[in-house]
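User: Study the shape:
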Amino acid sequence: MKTRVCRLYDQNDIRVETETVAEPARGEVRVAVGAGGICGSDLHYYLDGGFGPIRVREPIILGHEAAGTVEAVGPGVEGLSPGDRVAINPSQPCGHCSYCAEGLFIHCLNMRFQGSAMRVPHQQGLFRDLIVLNSDQCLKVSDRVSPRELACSEPLAVGIHAVKRAGEISGKRVLVTGAGPIGSLCVAAIRRAGAADIVVTDLHAATLNAAARMGANRTINMAEEPDGLDAYAADKGTFDVVFECSASPVAIKGAMTALRPRGRFVQLGVAGDLEVPLNVLVGKEITVIGTHRFHGEFAEAVRAIESGMIEVRPVVTHSFPVENAKEAFAYASDRSRAVKVQLTFAEG
């Protein structure tokens, strides 16, 4: 049996190729992928060859945001049958290392994460028509939910985990800097957690429009209103919590200026080494919180989408068939016209 795969060879060198797909072994299922979202890490691999110390050192099939339909099941699989709609969890902690023993599965020393170049050999990803997976990576849902919606489960889980890391949100005034897919899905998670007021900043109208539809009370286009946060900086700052999703030094400085004393600064965006205004951080006694990926939040995100509690369709602005992968990556890299760009496959 053959499947198309979307494989990256080098910067700006992505190819759709065909390879053989195996029959599912014990405990495995074969899934027909319907849709897969292009993430920021996929873009970094494609445009820059990696991010920070993580570099693409061999050909890699990209993609870690996907959903589809079970096509076949191997021996010993329970609870899944051919025809079941499933969200795919790309995270596979070992369950045995010291951090897994502590329940810190996110920090597993032997983590395998689909579409990641962190280890060599690279962990191959989900951008393909057919893939064989461990059955416990597949979460069954109603077929009323489309693969395009379900493919947002992974980035939504990132946002839900970030909100949990932030502590109490109910009744708080919140700033989100960066309205890309993670920022906009964070807005939905923050709104669900009961924030009193959510302000979002970005440089593009398209992304800010998505953030507004996801629940922001106010959006500020910093390209058009560079002083848009100034009023929030009065009296040592207004916001109780910041979710920083851009990894921009300018955005970080502005957000810390607008954060009130003893506020919480939650960093989601990643980049290389950045300057941080330590005098502001120290003077205001700001608590800085890092947040990374998810664990149990994946199932929580899937159920939020399935139940309609969180509507993710405003974030998905473009879809392209996998054979048009180069065009899809070009759109995904242009935040002036796209938020979340997805690839569609045979099942979609």
In short: The chain has ten helices and 20 strands. The chain has a mean pLDDT of 96. Residues 156-290 form a domain with the Rossmann fold fold (CATH 3.40.50.720). The radius of gyration is 20 Å.
